[in-house]
Request: fold
Amino acid sequence: MAWNTFSTVAETVKALDDKQVSAVELATHYLDRADALQPALNAYVTLDREKTLVEAAAADAKRAAGETAPLLGVPIAHKDIYLIEGWRTTCGSKMLENFIAPYTSTVVKNMSDAGMVTLGKLNMDEFAMGSSNETSYFGPVKNPWDVSRVPGGSSGGSAASVAAGLAPASTGTDTGGSIRQPAMFCNLTGLKPTYGVCSRFGIIAFASSLDQAGPFAQTAEDCALLLTAMAGFDAHDATSLDRPKENYSRDLSRPLNGLRIGLPKEFFGEGVAPGIAKAVDDALTVYRKLGAITVEVSLPNVKYSVPAYYVVAPAEASSNLSRFDGVRYGHRAAQYSDLMDMYMRSRAEGFGAEVKRRILIGAYVLSHGYYDAYYLQAGKLRRLIAEDFKRAYEVCDVVMGPTAPETAFQFGAKSDDPVKMYLNDIFTICANLTGQPAMSHPCGVDEAGQHVGMQIIGNYLDEARMLNVAHQYQLATDWHRKHPSI
Ligand code: GLN
Reply:
């Protein structure tokens, strides 16, 4: 098959190997397309043609010299939360509008070592706080399927770029659902690995006990290739898991006979839009045909996920974001009377409304006398939720359900009501609180033609198995092969 705009990563590697296309041709194609669609989608914050083409030419030279690397010459775009030396890294904020990263994050370095070529930096919600990409200082990203709708968030640029064929794959980060929910909204496959599988070094911190890096791609097969490149122990991250490198593609072809799918009754109740319930149901029928069996499980404490998250995440964010003080880096107010005034003005000018809301909540729940009442209690809830899952895995291998309770919504539909916005992550947040791996794959459309995602939550370090499950579904279906006509 000849290479085309919507070729997968696996197909692109083959096209490069077969000399159907060069790394420079690939990079040029995606850069041209990214430029052409930037006014319509606003997916990128920074493109740097010269830098990208230098990397691509180096990949071609390596190929010509007979050197090999698993993804040599394949382009990838990165969420603008990843530091890449010499690249502007904004995190979607005015605070870092002119910040040039002094070093490269481990995940990006690992991907470069695997031969990948950086295409550019992708738009995102400010400091990864949001579910719709409407909080970015650089303006919202549009959903390529319907530009009146949000692409999901906070990794909205990561999702829109791959869905629109502006990059064959991208990276995102997921603190409460920011890979899985935009993957669903844009009809992609996205994976949040087990906490500690990908290094957080060089990724701007939001909530350190929840943040994880992960890939966006069209297929589970591609996510396996990408995760194999991204993951690995890193001494620079104290929470990095010290274990041998894995090949996440190793189980892809395993049949699903006897796979036990746990269906939590809490994920199938009221509040799930009917079109989503139907698509998920149809997908489960496919899974049963593939030999899986479904069992009902109960996760009685997941109802506390959103409240626990909105204590833990703002608390950690308020602490992490204290480093943006206008002294060391980032925005500094032009006029101020003394040091305290400079801190206050720099932060007041540099941060947007949602970030300020999180800092205020975080400072409140961590303050003297409230720590025990909020942060400590939230920590206990995390433990209870983890125990619910532990019990579920006694009778099932993976847990499944809808990725989000609603499909892609219109711009402005939730931006005045933070609680409504926060509830969009009701099914995804639990896996961040427990640290389990979770992914989303396309499984149909609702009455309005908007895309539905199936979430697969796995036991710790079961990524290879989950990717196998999603891959087998994708061999039997073609939802993931649909592209917007943009
Ligand atoms: N939507 C959630 C929030 O606003 C999750 C964001 C994320 O995963 N980065 O915090």
